Amino acid sequence: MSFLQQVRSVNPLIHNITNVVVTNFTANGLLALGASPFMAFAHEEVEDVAAMAGAVMLNMGTLDPYTVQSIKLAGKAANRAGVPVVFDPVGAGATSYRTASAHEIVAEVKVDILRGNVAEIAHVIGENWQIKGVDAGGGTGDRKELALRAARKLGCIVVITGEQDIVTDGVQVNTVSNGHALLTQVTGAGCLLSSVVAAFAAVVNDTEQRLKAVTEAVACYGLAAELAAIDAGGQGTGSFQMAFLNRLSMVTPEQVDGHCLIQRHLDS
Ligand code: ATP
Ligand code: TZP
Ligand code: MG
Ligand code: MG
Questions:
Q1: Relative to the CA of 192, which ligand 2 atom is closest?
Q2: All domains of the chain, ordered by start, with CATH?
Q3: Whose Cα sits closest to atom 12 in ligand 1?
Q4: Which of 84, 88, 116, 171 could be 59's S-S partner, Cβ–Cβ 3.0 to 4.6 Å?
Q5: For the segment 143-197, what is each residue's pLDDT rounded down to a tens digit?
Q6: Is ipTM strictly over 0.90?
Q7: How far is the CA of 161 from the centre of ligand 3 (A)?
């Protein structure tokens, strides 16, 4: 059974501590995919929610000290319970507060999967890359080498997204070329992907399979966007967003099998 089929049959509970911009879109995207979203950030309950979830997605998009503490409490509870943790360091590098918070989070929480744009990933590991607010700037450098350094430094899977996506565990590097430029016009496209990655991670029993599942998640998401762009037929970004949710609910394992653009290689 493909990971997508497993998500739809298991309907995993995904605990999201996410930002105020994307909360509704994320919940609807997870429902469309076949997962069960739970947004909870109160200090009084985040540990309980994280421990009962299939996976936890921690996102620092609209950060404040209360949310940083929510993220740390949930992340540590997930670690204790063996629940996979995805971290989306939105805007790391944009302000010193965001960069410092991201550093604190990865120091205190064992992150299993780090997903962000190239600049965010660079700043999480103390490197520099041009950033414009929450969007990757026009910086240059070797994205694959950066992903490998981040994966090795943090001992986790790293997903760097953009026109081409890189997924690595520090040994194997998968590149995914699915996706559509219209995703850049929908706020929360990256944040929802982080939650979709969490949903795929939640159904993996054998952690050896996690890299494969995360890569399939990224390809499946990009393919849904390609199909949605056809459906929306040049009607603009609002129609595309709606079509994208529709396609997340309808994309089939056979379509993913037939149209995923994944290249796999070992780092040499
Ligand atoms: P940023 O803030 O830099 O936009 P993000 O957190 O929104 O980052 P993205 O890098 O935009 O995340 O990735 C979200 C999704 O959009 C991924 O599936 C990615 O493959 C896709 N994507 C981003 N840019 C493009 C592009 N130019 N062409 C095709 N797909 C893209
Ligand atoms: N501002 C703070 S968080 C946020 C914005 C616009 C959403 C970012 O979402 P994404 O998925 O990184 O585009
Ligand atoms: Mg984007
Ligand atoms: Mg983002």
A1: 11
A2: 3-172+183-217 (3.40.1190.20)
A3: 190
A4: 88
A5: 999 999 999 999 999 999 999 999 999 999 999 999 999 999 999 999 999 999 9
A6: yes
A7: 8
